[in-house]
Amino acid sequence: MTPVVYPGSFDPVTRGHVDVVRRAASVFGRVIVAVASNVRKSATFSVDERVEMLKDALEGIPGVEVDAFEGLLVDYLDHTDAKVVIRGVRAVSDYEFEFQMAHMNRQLRPGIETVFLVAGPEEFFISSSAVKEVACFGGDVSTFVPACVEARLRARMTNPT
Ligand code: PNS
To answer: Which of the listed residues 101, 103, 117, 126 should we mutate to test ligand 1's pocket, taking the one with most ligand atoms within 8 A of CB?
Structure first.
């Protein structure tokens, strides 16, 4: 079965991401969740840590694999044979970046399609950066991130390396 690819920073994975993976897997059957290692953001967690947390968080969802990539997403898609990119959208403000990225990828590789899954009412306000800020000030993030991420996040935020 040809996979679809759900790329992102996942720094760290949130319950919003998990919801997108679950729904993508039920529609497309096979999903590769791909951690980008060279995004122009300074990451809180290493790529290996992000992959590890994703594997924990997504355990038991059939048809899901976790991987990491460097460089252009379209080059990674070539390796996987995937033609469809999955992205979650939460608010209209996400759309500008997503629209640009979808078109850029299609210019770079005609035939690539981006499919957007709209965040659910319980997840639309969750972002990795907001979650990190809440954790940084000692707030409870247990409803925003998978249990396996919570402890790591708290440790990292109170003792950054
Ligand atoms: O979770 P994010 O940070 O919104 O994910 C963005 C990501 C990693 C999907 C995007 O930055 C990406 O695809 N980076 C790889 C480099 C690339 O292909 N850039 C061209 C598309 S603009």
So the answer is: 101
23 counts as catalytic: no
Task: Please check whether the domain covering 4-158 is classified as CATH 3.40.50.620.
Answer: yes
Tokens read off for 7: 């790329």
Q: Where are the domains of the chain?
A: 4-158
Supply the pTM of this predicted model.
Answer: 0.96
Burial (CB < 10 A; 0-12, 13-18, 19+), residue 94, is: middle
Q: What is the CA radius of gyration of the chain?
A: 15
**Which pLDDT tens digit goes with each residue over 12-24?**
999 999 999 999 9
Cβ of residue 5 lying under 6 Å from some atom of ligand 1: no
